[in-house]
Amino acid sequence: MSVTKNVTSLKLYLEAEDGVNALGAMQTKSALIGSVVIDAENAKCYAVAEAIGELMAHPVVNVYVSEKAALEKAE
User: What CA–CA distance (Å, rounded) separates 37 from 55?
Assistant: First the structure.
């Protein structure tokens, strides 16, 4: 049986530093930037995240792309 994965949407998230907890460990907050064109280049997505990060009050510590995909069985 052959199964294919078809990406249906991508979303770009930033994780920014948001102070420290009672134990002194860094806390973070995530921010959804929005939908991304499915065939967007990784470097361009990262460049957008860096540019937005420069406008934020707290430094960005991680950049994520969340993928939603449909699995389809080939016949």
Answer: 22
Collapsing DSSP states into helix, strand and coil, what is residue 30?
A: strand
3-state secondary structure of 24: coil
30-64 confidence digits (pLDDT tens): 999 988 999 999 999 999 999 999 998 889 999 99
pTM for this one? 0.76
What SS3 state is found at 5? strand
Sorting pLDDT into bands at 50, 70 and 90, what band is 74?
confident
Cβ–Cβ < 8 Å for 74, 4:
yes
If you search the block for the tokens 């470097």, which residue do you land on? 43
The strand pairing partners of 14, in sequence order, are: 31, 63
